[in-house]
Amino acid sequence: MNRSELAPHIDHTVLGPATTMDDVERVLDESMEWGMNACIPPCYVAEAREYADEDLTIATVVGFPHGHHEPRIKLEEAVQAWEAGADELDVVLNVGRLKAGQMDAVTEELAEMVAAVPVPVKVIIETVLLTDEEKRRASRAAAAADADFVKTSTGFADGGAVASDVELMAEFLPVKASGGIGSYEAAMTMLEAGAERIGASSGVAILEGAPE
After folding, report:
1. Which of 74, 122, 135, 176 is an active site residue?
2. For the chain, what is the mean pLDDT?
3. Which residues contact 43 (CB under 8 A, 6 or more apart)?
């Protein structure tokens, strides 16, 4: 896969706790230059939408990074992000409720957010914290909620995307592989495992390693 083919599959990301608008503008500039999407903190979405080209896909996060927000707060956060101009939402599933077996609550929370916004929703399941069976339950809940993607990781837990998790999750929904993907080779490993999107703060480095 060459650079132009790979670029639209990458969500070039900046989500660290010290992220400034200058950091966001850098990611937006790089995304527009290279043909990637951008994934940024929700507090900057409105400014980013004014700054960026109209056709740049801007994603943001909801319930980030642990997913433990009260459901009404997550719902309002999702709606506000869409109204501010976000084109896609990466929503953190409530891992604690998943592990407790409260699957109705997990699915209902996700379904309400999906129903409330007319943009694609990706559900972050934080694979490093889950057993394979829990990954299946999480992916099944995302599918039942009519989400558009499942996503491996926030990048803020120990560990990130691995090919075996991508393969497992791809049985249920399209997959965004995220966490620890810093090279063209690593990105291609995830795509070959079944991922359709890559989330990475190293989007430029990934593309620089790709054949022209």
Report:
1. 176
2. 97
3. none
CA angle, residues 142, 146, 151, in degrees to nearest 5: 40
**122 tagged catalytic:** no
Query: Among residues 11, 74, 87, 90, which one is catalytic?
Result: 90
Distance CA 15, CA 186 (A): 20
In one-letter notation, the amino acid at residue 160 is G
pLDDT tens digits for range 11-58: 999 999 999 999 999 999 999 999 999 999 999 999 999 999 999 999
How many residues are present in the chain?
Answer: 212
Domain 3-208 has CATH 3.20.20.70: yes
User: What is the spatial distance between Cα 100 and Cα 98, in angstroms, rounded to a whole number?
Assistant: 5
Per the annotation, the verdict on 53 as an active-site residue is: no
Which residue among the candidates 74, 122, 135, 151 is catalytic per the annotation? Answer: 151
DSSP 42-102: GGGHHHHHHHS-TT--EEEEESTTT--S-HHHHHHHHHHHHHHT-SEEEEEP-HHHHHTT-
99 assigned to active site = no
> pTM (2 decimals)?
0.97
